[in-house]
Amino acid sequence: MKTILLTKKSICLLLVTMMLATLQSFGQQDLEKELGNTAPAHEKVSATFKSTKLINVHTNETIFKNELDFRIDHRFGDIAGSNGGIRRFFGLDNATDVRIGFEYGLSDRLSVGFARAKGATEVQQLYEGNLKYRLIEQTTDDYIPVAVTLFGSTTATGVTASDDPSSGTAYRNFSDRLNFVTQVIIARKFNSSFSFTLTPSYVHRNFTAFRDQNDLFALSAGGRAKISKRMALVVDYTMPFRNGSDQDYLEQQSGIKYRNALGAGLEIETGGHVFNLNFTNATAIEEMQFIPQTTSNWLKGQFRWGFSIARRFSFNKKNKEK
Amino acid sequence: MKTPLVILLCAMLSISVQAQHILISKTASISFYASTPAEDVEAKSDKASSVIDTKTRNIIFKVSNTSFQFPKKLMQEHFNENYMESDKYPASTFKGKITDDVDLEKDGTYNVTIDGSLDIHGVTKNYQTKATLVVNKGTITAKTSFKVTVADHQIKIPTLVFAKIAQIVDVKISAVYQPK
């Protein structure tokens, strides 16, 4: 009997302790449950890319409101091939193109830019004005799976008009000097270390060399893969869709072949600065030029060392209230 | 047969117990400020959530790291991407208890000590802070401030930007709790 009583007692005790324990833990858990889901709904993905450009192609990134991005792009001469090698110090003696650009954020979605570039072909002294607008932003919960940014630029050439009417620079008036680029930049950040972009482009040049195309469609793809917290490998590829017969004619006339532009590089982000060290066969930097006019061949050593430096300045007034 | 009954009993009990003693704030504000030779770093979130149990005097704070707004947006991007790693650690949480024996159901102003653990960047550390609670007709207004040492939570700052980012950050919190 005694033992049974004891067991009963101990069971009772156990039950009470259990109840108390459950109560206690219920209270704690419930308290946290009361908070509900604190994560914001459909949160926007930030920093799909760290810079407004990969190497040759634009990313979906724009400049935040009241911030200014100052960017220098530089392309040296061919590393190898007939124009490279030790005589030209692996291309470092030449600069095929240099671009100095400013971009300013009018809002967190819209930025406006102005740039001056040397220009890589006979079409030189380029002045570019551009607008970039974030149309759609990817969300972390994949409610919106991709980001879409629109890019539009107008580039005027300042080079002295050529007398040769078949030349690409035989301008008759100012409007001949204008070139337009429209891009729809589709991007997705797959995870914290990999982002991808696909960009259809439309390039319109008011004046081109004889039988060169005024209107040209192209497709670009690019990716960024982080190798450390601050460093990433970047690659981009641009493929213009040229009209076959015109391309054959031009290639026969000049003895050159049109190529797709491929770039590969290392991006280093230091908080405020983004450095990019790259190799690409594209001699030009401006979209209206590198998309239609890339003729250098990677396999012939006609790729170059290039770099870009981007520095961000903020003009936001400091928040006075604390 | 006994066990489900006990669980049911406990569940019922706990439901009846918790209901009236829980006050909640969905718009608690957390701001932090750090002064460095290069520039001042400050950010604020008005979207923190907090809940207080006046009976047990337990208190929980939770804030989504991405809800902090910086005057400089690039700084905000760096904060989330490089320092807080918000994709891995989306929220910062404080779980604590008011150690003083105060009756938070009576109107009045109470200076109390809160003891608890703060989870930032996936690293939990114990904190003790003084707070002021004002109880007025069922609502509670709470205010506190404390210092967080960045290194305590294994937030790594590269030497290159060392000067720009302070090692000790002043955190200010205020919340108005309403009955659930």
What is the topology?
The complex is a heterodimer of chains A (322) and B (180).
Chain A: H1 2-34, E1 67-78, E2 95-105, E3 110-117, E4 126-136, E5 147-157, E6 178-191, E7 194-205, E8 215-226, E9 231-241, H2 244-254, E10 261-269, E11 273-280, H3 287-293, E12 304-314
Antiparallel strand pairs in A: 1-2, 1-12, 2-3, 3-4, 4-5, 5-6, 6-7, 7-8, 8-9, 9-10, 10-11, 11-12
Chain B: H1 2-18, E1 22-35, E2 40-53, E3 58-64, H2 73-83, E4 91-98, E5 108-120, E6 123-136, E7 139-149, E8 168-179
Antiparallel strand pairs in B: 1-2, 1-8, 2-3, 3-4, 4-5, 5-6, 6-7, 7-8
Question: In words, what does this structure look like?
Answer:
The complex is a heterodimer of chains A (322) and B (180). Chain A contains three helices and twelve strands. In chain A, strands 1-2-3-4-5-6-7-8-9-10-11-12 form a twelve-stranded antiparallel barrel. With 322 residues, chain A is of the alpha+beta class. In chain A, a hairpin with a 2-residue loop joins strand 6 and strand 7. Chain B has two helices and eight strands. Chain B has one domain (21-179): Lipocalin (Beta Barrel). Chain B has helices at residues 2-18, 73-83, and strands at residues 22-35, 40-53, 58-64, 91-98, 108-120, 123-136, 139-149, 168-179. Classes of the chains: A alpha+beta (322), B alpha+beta (180).
